Amino acid sequence: MSRPVKRSLTLNGHRTSVSLEEEFWRAFRALAQAQDRPINALAAEIDASRGPDTGLATAIRLYVLQNLTERAGLGGR
Question: Looking at residues 5-21, what average pLDDT do you find?
Answer without folding.
Answer: 96
